[in-house]
Design a protein that fits this description.
This protein is mostly beta strands. The chain has four domains: 161 residues, no CATH class; 86 residues, Sandwich (Immunoglobulin-like), CATH 2.60.40.10; 86 residues, Sandwich (Immunoglobulin-like); 170 residues, Jelly Rolls (Sandwich). The chain contains two helices and 43 strands. The strands form eleven sheets. Strands 31, 32, 33, 34, 37, 38, 39, 40, 41, 42 and 43 form an eleven-stranded antiparallel sheet that branches. A four-stranded antiparallel sheet has the order 15-17-20-19, with no helix packed on it. A hairpin with a 2-residue loop joins β19 and β20. α1 packs antiparallel against α2. The chain is flat, with a radius of gyration of 38 Å.
């Protein structure tokens, strides 16, 4: 900074020396002075913005410790950033982070903070590495002073001890104001995103309010129903009162954070309302009205049947009361999934385990109970499974012979006696792929995008339980595959199809070595199998002769399945 000002003074004196010459044109010199002055102003603005962002980041860290909250987040003019107001720490400007241009060393320094998992404290960093003072990390805390930024000798300098000591933190040509890249207001909290994509989340000051989970409540004559409530932004002087009509009685218990309403219904249940009001120590008022009526419980359906595979089922019912759902202890093959509720309509989810060795269907009960109404039953019936049959592809019956070693290979279409069709492929034998038995054949399906290799069966019978595919690659010379990737589709004559992508990374593939994929299909009846090369290299075939991501399907076999 001193260098710039000395230079500007010298230029100004030079201009004065020539002032007496009538014909002297000082446009060039004055232009350079204006340029330098503009650059100084720009750098000073940049330093102020960077210092503001660093201070904002420190305030965010301190807010986590002191439980300070954010009052508001407002945009700066021209969307240059945000004005963030803390409840205790006041306002601070946060400017939009910019990358800027790289410094002289090709690197853009970034000031940040990082949490030490060992002690839970935040420390200042440069480029992700801790700033050090006499070999010790510098805590990001206001106790050490307000962070300061200055520009000197074309460098950014950083101080956390009110200017006593300075740490170089980057070339001014980096021109970034970083540290904070974004501020997101999520309504109840504000998220500061830092340069390393880590975040600091600070809660917002909430408006004084009272919250109750439901507005309509079912009750039973003469019984007491307990209803929790929560106070938002209450203080120690907050008071809560409640009133009821139509013969109902209500009592309030709790503190300034929340509590419970105990509502007792009369001997004859009628529609009625309970009014609850909260008044803070500041005189703020918040209230809610709860409507009460006769309790009811209705099952949408009284049972469900599921196949032997098991899976997720739903128990839908309607009630305006607190319900208790319980699984019969003997039905340990049913497990409840965390519930999801909507007002007055409830759907409890359960997972039914697979029934692998059953000889006949089984049943289990789920009970739903509401106080004063009684218990209702929901029946789960699961079918048994019998496994039969299975099969194996007849690749040895492809009509085309395996090309001799050294023979030019071209893409062909072929079909086995059992109806396995190969499209855009070739046939390989033991010499090309060792796992293929002597005298055997296996399809080699192309990996090029202009002639996608496909292998598909005819319609098979007896169902498919486990589908096993042995596959691999025959590399040529020193050329390595980028991987093998193909889609397996099992389509039943009736019912839901099955599909799964099989992938092996290039560095996991050993030349002329089979890889085994075992797929859990679980399809009964008639079905077909289709294998499509997904061409992971995403290139066309070479002279209609395939690519190096073509895959050899050594064998396809399956076990039968019948529900």
């Amino acid at each position: 900074m001193k260098t710039l000002r000395h230079l500007m003074t010298a230029l100004s004196l030079s201009a004065l020396l020539f002032a007496g010459c009538d014909k002297y044109d000082d446009t060039a010199i004055s232009g350079r002075v204006d340029e330098l002055e503009g650059r100084v102003t720009q750098l000073e603005t940049l330093a102020k913005q960077l210092q503001s962002n660093v201070s904002a980041m420190q305030l965010a860290v301190d807010a986590l410790k002191s439980q300070d909250r954010i009052v508001s987040v407002e945009p700066l003019p021209d969307n240059a950033g945000f004005v963030v107001e803390f409840e205790n720490a006041g306002k601070i400007n946060v400017y939009n982070g910019t990358d800027g241009k790289d410094g002289a060393d090709g690197k853009t320094p970034v000031i940040g903070v990082q949490k030490d998992e060992a002690d839970g404290q935040y420390y200042w960093t440069i480029d992700g590495e801790p700033m050090l003072d006499n070999g010790k990390k510098i805590p990001a805390t206001a106790q050490l002073g307000t962070p300061q930024i200055k520009i000197e000798n074309d460098k950014f300098w950083f101080s956390v001890d009110e200017g006593k000591n300075w740490t170089e933190c980057g070339d001014i040509r980096s021109a970034g104001i970083g540290t904070i890249t974004n501020v997101t207001d999520n309504g109840d909290e504000v998220v500061f995103t830092l340069w390393d994509n880590s975040t600091i989340t600070i809660p917002k000051v909430q408006a004084f309010a009272i919250e109750i989970g439901r507005a309509e409540v079912g009750v039973v004559a003469g019984q007491t129903t307990f209803i929790p409530y929560t106070i938002i932004a209450g203080d120690k002087d907050t008071k809560v009162k409640a009133m009821a009509d139509e013969g109902y009685k209500v009592e309030v218990s709790g503190n300034y954070n929340g509590g419970e309403l105990a509502v007792t219904a009369p001997a004859t249940v009628t529609k009625a309302s309970v009014f609850i009001v909260a008044i803070s120590g500041k005189g703020e008022v918040a209230g809610k009205i709860l409507d009460f009526e006769k309790g009811d419980l209705v099952l949408v359906k009284d049972g469900v049947t599921i196949d032997a595979l098991g899976g997720e089922i739903e128990l839908p019912f309607k009630t305006n009361m607190d319900a208790i759902v319980m699984i019969d202890p003997s039905a340990n093959w049913i497990e409840q999934i965390p519930e999801t509720k909507a007002l007055q309509e409830y759907t409890y989810k359960f997972n039914v385990k697979a029934y692998e060795n059953g000889t006949e269907p089984r049943e289990g009960k789920i009970y739903i109970t509401c106080d004063g109404i009684g218990r209702k039953e929901f029946t789960v019936r699961q079918l048994n499974t019998v496994k039969t049959g299975g099969g194996e592809a007849d690749f040895n019956t492809f009509k085309t012979e395996v090309p001799a070693t050294g023979q030019l290979m071209v893409l062909i279409n072929d079909e086995t006696e059992a109806g396995w069709k190969m499209t855009n492929g070739a046939l390989r034998g033991h010499k090309q792929f060792t796992p293929i038995p002597e005298g055997g054949k296996a399809p080699w399906i192309n990996g090029g995008t202009n002639a996608v290799g496909i292998l598909e069966s005819s319609m098979l019978t007896g169902g498919c339980d486990k589908l096993t595919i042995a596959y691999g690659v025959q590399s040529a010379g020193n050329i390595k595959t980028c991987g093998l990737k193909f889609l397996v589709e099992v389509t039943p004559k009736e019912g839901k199809p099955f599909s799964e992508t099989v992938y092996s990374a290039g560095n996991s593939i050993v030349n002329k070595t089979a890889i085994q994929a075992i797929l859990d299909v679980k399809i009964s009846g008639s079905f077909s199998i289709k294998i499509t090369n997904l061409c992971p290299k995403n290139t066309e075939s070479v002279n209609n002769r395939g690519t190096y991501d073509s895959v050899i399907i050594q064998n396809v076999s399956w076990t039968g399945y019948t529900e």
